[in-house]
Amino acid sequence: MKIDAIHLREIQMPLAHPFETSFGVTTGRRILLVEIEADGLSAWGECVAGEHPYFSDEQVDTAWHIAETELAPRLINVEITSGRDCPALFEQVRGHRMAKAALENAVWDLDAQQQGISLAKLLGGTREIIPCGVSIGIQATPEKLMDTIAKELAAGYQRIKLKCKPGWDSAIFARVRERWPDILLSCDANSAYSLDNADHIAAIESWDQFNLLMIEQPLWYDDFYFHAQLQRRINTRICLDECIRNRRDARASLELGSGKIINIKVGRVGGFTEAIAVHDVAQEFGIPVWCGGMLETGIGRAHNIALSSLPNFSLPGDVSASKRYWAQDIIEPEVTVSPTGTITVPTTPGRGFAVQPDRIDRITVRRQTLRRGAAVAG
């Protein structure tokens, strides 16, 4: 596999609706896209780093710099056989996993196209359809939240996940459970809590009373130890997100008892190779996994669908429909969810969704191209 060119593009897309978490409110996205050209084919990757280093220490400008000066030059001037070669190529660069994933995932897409098989099949996927949940941001009022939940349930989503933070948690969960006692309900704190308010979560008949599927990353983004302490105090399963960067983190956290579910975000762990490895570790421990979302365009969403077809993705993920986030996505067909809350996994070669270059060109604000033989690794 010889790569002819790597194109970096930054696009800017307004969200269809503002999305609020404990980090703040997001109304639009700056997104780094990677296109790889080889053998007359075009493959795509998406960097999920945010506008600010709030979810992780990466953001779109650091990702651009590292991709342009370190990662893409290493990739374009060698011959590789598959996406599994990328981690070794990128190993000298510490961290910057979201930038690495954008390039590696495009190579997986290219490999699938060259072999004439779907990306899901190349990754080892076994599911023909995947169950879908939805992540609902913090709303202006409880009434607005209730309206939003009702709308998403009517659309068929199998699991409702509520973003939460101190002051927007127990009372909200109680209202939701009073109205919908039997829905699959979870919450996501994005590390908004500390030991100072852990008693609020673990007090007798506190959050356990709401019959939550899971509590996602309630404590520090880089912590295993205190999550393990909290997990021992509650019956509700803790789901680990931000603190799982690789297969070693997954194994360490499970041996410590830090949580009982893992959210796998392919960008957070550095690409498909490591995402598969985390999946395998969790499966070894009998721990279910699911695929989290990062407000991706259809390119990243297509990759999430393929990843979610692996056998241990047994819980509904955050892989929801394009229209929930974008007035118009940059792929065709756009991602849709069935009335029963499922997505059909594509079987066509590669990612299974056609990128729309004209749409991308209209919203591109900067670009850079590296060509084979013209770039030298930094």
List key phrases describing it.
378 residues; alpha/beta; Enolase-like, domain 1; TIM Barrel; 2 domains; 7-stranded parallel β-sheet; 4-stranded antiparallel β-sheet; 15 strands
Strand and helix map with partners:
Blueprint: E1 5-21, E2 24-38, E3 41-47, H1 60-76, H2 86-90, H3 97-115, H4 119-123, E4 129-131, E5 133-136, H5 142-154, E6 159-163, H6 170-179, E7 185-188, H7 198-202, E8 215-216, H8 225-233, E9 238-240, H9 247-256, E10 261-264, H10 266-269, H11 272-284, E11 289-291, H12 298-307, E12 331-332, E13 342-344, E14 354-355, H13 357-362, E15 364-371
Parallel strand pairs: 5-6, 6-7, 7-8, 8-9, 9-10, 10-11
Antiparallel strand pairs: 1-2, 1-15, 2-3, 4-13, 12-14
Helix pairs in contact: 1-3, 9-11
